[in-house]
């Protein structure tokens, strides 16, 4: 069982928050959400205890049930409740939602150089007080990535703490906490913020890998969350959306992973408009492992092979010829090289060809030398795995050629597998197959994901207690590992946001997000049939984001107006905000006036294309400047911008414009897109615009024509390795 939620605060400050799978018991952990931080001077714990007392009937039962009271940034508590008790709590005055505890999925070098954020572009005394908070599986504090040489003491604004049980903080890791509300641990876990899985160390060392030390009232500037749900939730039933909303109210941008359920549409998670949603894309390096047959013919596979056979050839067999009949295996089973299905008498000392993606243990435990894998469900591998023995993964097309070639060898076929090489990937960046796609399942008027960042074959820190390959019993220990996932892209965006925040400490979360989106590298649409649903505004460009020219700013009031238009009522809204916010003057409708740095227009089948968007930009570039709008649009869409020229005479000045989009009636039309670009000759401010057919509130998955319910597993994930490790791009913390 994986530690699934860690509040790692990285300045790298690390906090580790633990959410563990709940065993089926009468009482299960529930989170009761009651909105904004209480304004009155009253003990929230006492109030929460009183609520439980009323439901459970005694003070002692209430005390045993209450796990934690929240009152610092929002009002709520965690308690162990039966379903009936949870229902009664949900009906109490002031309660917005009661949700059972759940496991969030991990959405899981060269990458910073690839984005042109090299060491000569970072540093400086003004960048030393930025604090990044990470929610993940902890950190290995002794890792060299967290050496505090050259760091001064934590900034004065820091009010956090360090849980020192089996853990030590320093001037780099300035705080750490772990949470285990159910007192349940997996084998090898440590009850402290110390990382035993590796995921948290990897994301933390990525976010803080540049010399930007990555302020909430208790001292955090950026929160990085590489976690997410498998199914869409209403905003105030989604704890990550709730937490990021309250962070936004306190001036903190939350960077979220988009999820690893791609390439299927409407699978994007963490889609709240007040947070940054990050997809995963490749860098200009791919890792390949060559294999050579006895006749000298060479084939390549996308794999991380750390074993060196020194060019020695070994007998090559088909897995189906090595069935362990004693335990009931057969060629139809053994061809997949499943653990326990293989005969060690046959496999020992040989390289085995396997027709499925597995973790290598089937061959390893049968004393095989190595494995060559091909899986019909993984036609074009675009990210690499590390294995516990010499291995390579080839495409099914290559598999047929290589196997037929090997069988044609005179005598017994042989093969060898070479140590992995790093090859230049001239196609990069491209969005990786596993990265979740839009549109947003809850608010399709908001384009999600927002942006993409490197998330494929990322080298970063690792816990020495965690296996170094996809095989969980791999006993090799390492301080660095190469893995993939939106869990890896998210901390890149978090680090970039911290970089911008350091240069502009007074900018709002929306302004920082806007800077990252409007300056992004434009992705090649010819490589992505789902266009912006794959990559949002493009790939982050941290250097350009530090000086964007114009920003699309937004305040809490703007998001409240958005929520009102989404159908929330005044009563619920005030419970969330804790103030006099009202929806009385707002009519539910489309979200076209939220000041977002992109434009999304869904059209129901048979309806014409028509919308008017309103946007306001703030000048953060040259004081005296004139920006002109230019349009790139497909023939299907007609767009006018009024006014098309914006003139500024001061920094901080704002200008408002409207975008009118029209076109014919469309049906069954996939995403089509263009862009509106503002330029003054120096700055380039680009915002994508997408139009597509969609039925609101109808998230769907496509699986060979089958209809799928949210949360079910797409076909390509049913292959064993994707299922077991969730792909090192999937092991569901968005790693």
UniProtKB/TrEMBL annotation:
<dbReference type="Pfam" id="PF17766">
    <property type="entry name" value="fn3_6"/>
</dbReference>
<feature type="domain" description="Subtilisin-like protease fibronectin type-III">
    <location>
        <begin position="593"/>
        <end position="691"/>
    </location>
</feature>
<dbReference type="InterPro" id="IPR036852">
    <property type="entry name" value="Peptidase_S8/S53_dom_sf"/>
</dbReference>
<feature type="domain" description="Peptidase S8/S53">
    <location>
        <begin position="216"/>
        <end position="538"/>
    </location>
</feature>
<feature type="signal peptide">
    <location>
        <begin position="1"/>
        <end position="24"/>
    </location>
</feature>
<feature type="domain" description="Peptidase S8/S53">
    <location>
        <begin position="128"/>
        <end position="214"/>
    </location>
</feature>
<keyword id="KW-0378">Hydrolase</keyword>
<dbReference type="GO" id="GO:0006508">
    <property type="term" value="P:proteolysis"/>
</dbReference>
<dbReference type="InterPro" id="IPR037045">
    <property type="entry name" value="S8pro/Inhibitor_I9_sf"/>
</dbReference>
<comment type="similarity">
    <text>Belongs to the peptidase S8 family.</text>
</comment>
<protein>
    <submittedName>
        <fullName>Cucumisin</fullName>
    </submittedName>
</protein>
<dbReference type="InterPro" id="IPR015500">
    <property type="entry name" value="Peptidase_S8_subtilisin-rel"/>
</dbReference>
<feature type="active site" description="Charge relay system">
    <location>
        <position position="136"/>
    </location>
</feature>
<dbReference type="InterPro" id="IPR045051">
    <property type="entry name" value="SBT"/>
</dbReference>
<dbReference type="InterPro" id="IPR023827">
    <property type="entry name" value="Peptidase_S8_Asp-AS"/>
</dbReference>
<dbReference type="InterPro" id="IPR000209">
    <property type="entry name" value="Peptidase_S8/S53_dom"/>
</dbReference>
<dbReference type="Pfam" id="PF05922">
    <property type="entry name" value="Inhibitor_I9"/>
</dbReference>
<dbReference type="InterPro" id="IPR041469">
    <property type="entry name" value="Subtilisin-like_FN3"/>
</dbReference>
<keyword id="KW-0720">Serine protease</keyword>
<dbReference type="Pfam" id="PF00082">
    <property type="entry name" value="Peptidase_S8"/>
</dbReference>
<keyword id="KW-0645">Protease</keyword>
<dbReference type="GO" id="GO:0004252">
    <property type="term" value="F:serine-type endopeptidase activity"/>
</dbReference>
<dbReference type="InterPro" id="IPR023828">
    <property type="entry name" value="Peptidase_S8_Ser-AS"/>
</dbReference>
<dbReference type="InterPro" id="IPR010259">
    <property type="entry name" value="S8pro/Inhibitor_I9"/>
</dbReference>
<feature type="active site" description="Charge relay system">
    <location>
        <position position="487"/>
    </location>
</feature>
<feature type="domain" description="Inhibitor I9">
    <location>
        <begin position="30"/>
        <end position="106"/>
    </location>
</feature>
<keyword id="KW-0732">Signal</keyword>
<feature type="active site" description="Charge relay system">
    <location>
        <position position="199"/>
    </location>
</feature>
């Amino acid at each position: 069982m994986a530690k699934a939620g860690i509040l790692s605060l990285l300045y790298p400050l690390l906090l580790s928050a633990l959410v563990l799978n709940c065993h089926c018991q009468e009482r299960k952990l529930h989170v009761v959400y009651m909105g904004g931080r209480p304004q009155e001077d009253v003990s929230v714990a006492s109030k929460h205890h009183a609520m439980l007392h009323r439901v459970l009937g005694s003070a002692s039962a209430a005390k045993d049930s209450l796990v934690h009271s929240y009152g610092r940034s929002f009002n709520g508590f965690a308690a162990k409740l039966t379903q009936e008790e949870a229902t009664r709590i949900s009906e109490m005055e002031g309660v917005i939602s009661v949700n059972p505890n759940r496991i969030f999925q991990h959405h899981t070098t060269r990458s910073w150089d690839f984005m042109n954020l090299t060491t000569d572009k970072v540093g400086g005394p003004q960048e030393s007080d930025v604090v990044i908070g990470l929610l993940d599986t902890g950190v290995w504090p002794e890792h060299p990535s967290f050496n505090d040489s050259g760091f001064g003491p934590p900034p004065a604004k820091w009010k956090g703490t360090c849980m020192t049980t089996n853990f030590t903080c320093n001037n780099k890791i300035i705080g750490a906490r772990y949470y285990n509300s159910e007192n349940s641990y997996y084998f090898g876990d440590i009850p402290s913020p110390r990382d035993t899985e590796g995921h948290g160390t990897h994301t933390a060392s990525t976010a803080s890998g540049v010399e930007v030390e990555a302020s909430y009232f208790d001292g955090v500037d950026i929160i990085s969350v590489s976690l997410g749900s498998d199914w869409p939730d209403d905003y105030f039933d989604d704890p990550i959306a709730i937490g990021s909303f309250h962070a936004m109210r306190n001036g903190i941008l939350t960077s979220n992973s988009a999820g690893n359920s791609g390439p299927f549409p409407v699978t994007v998670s963490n889609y709240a408009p007040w947070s940054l949603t990050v997809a995963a894309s490749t860098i200009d390096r791919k890792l390949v492992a060559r294999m050579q047959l006895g006749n000298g013919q060479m084939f390549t596979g996308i794999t991380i092979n750390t074993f060196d056979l020194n060019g020695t050839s070994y007998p090559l067999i088909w897995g189906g010829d090595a069935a362990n009949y004693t335990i009931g295996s057969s060629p139809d089973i053994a061809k997949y090289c499943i653990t326990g299905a293989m005969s060690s008498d046959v496999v020992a000392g040989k390289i085995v060809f396997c027709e499925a993606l597995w973790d290598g243990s089937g061959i390893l435990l049968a004393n095989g030398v190595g494995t060559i894998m091909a899986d019909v469900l993984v036609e074009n591998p675009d990210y690499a795995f590390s294995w516990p023995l010499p291995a390579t993964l080839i495409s099914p097309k290559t598999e047929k050629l290589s196997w037929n070639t090997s069988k044609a060898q005179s005598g017994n076929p042989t093969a060898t597998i070479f140590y992995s090489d790093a090859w230049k990937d001239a196609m990069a960046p491209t969005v990786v197959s596993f990265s979740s796609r839009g549109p947003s399942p809850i608010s399709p008027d908001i384009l999600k994901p927002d942006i993409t960042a490197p998330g494929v074959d990322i080298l970063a820190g690792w816990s020495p207690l965690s296996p170094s390959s996809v095989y969980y019993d791999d006993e090799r220990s390492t301080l660095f590992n190469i893995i993939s996932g939106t869990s890896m892209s998210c901390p890149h965006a978090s680090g970039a946001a911290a970089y911008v925040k350091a240069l502009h400490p007074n900018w709002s979360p929306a302004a920082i997000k806007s800077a990252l989106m409007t300056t992004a590298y434009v992705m090649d649409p010819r490589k992505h049939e789902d266009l912006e649903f794959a990559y949002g505004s493009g790939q982050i460009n941290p250097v350009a984001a530090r000086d964007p020219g114009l920003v699309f700013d937004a305040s809490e009031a703007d998001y409240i107006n958005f929520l009102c238009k989404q159908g929330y009522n005044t009563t619920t809204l005030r419970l969330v905000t804790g103030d006099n916010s009202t929806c009385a003057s707002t009519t539910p409708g489309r979200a076209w006036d939220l000041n977002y740095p992109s434009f999304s227009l869904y059209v129901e089948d048979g309806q014409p294309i028509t919308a008017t968007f309103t946007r306001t930009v703030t000048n953060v570039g040259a004081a005296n400047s004139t920006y002109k709008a230019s349009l790139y649009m497909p023939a299907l869409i007609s767009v006018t911008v009024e006014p098309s020229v914006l003139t500024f005479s001061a920094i901080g000045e704002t200008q408002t414009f409207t975008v009118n989009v029209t076109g014919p009636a469309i049906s069954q039309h996939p995403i089509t897109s263009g862009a509106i670009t503002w330029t003054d000759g120096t700055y380039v401010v680009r915002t994508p615009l997408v139009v597509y057919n969609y039925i609101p509130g109808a998230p769907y998955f496509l699986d060979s024509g089958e209809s799928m319910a949210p949360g079910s597993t797409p076909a390509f994930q049913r292959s064993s390795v994707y299922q077991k490790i969730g792909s090192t791009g999937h092991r569901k913390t968005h790693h």
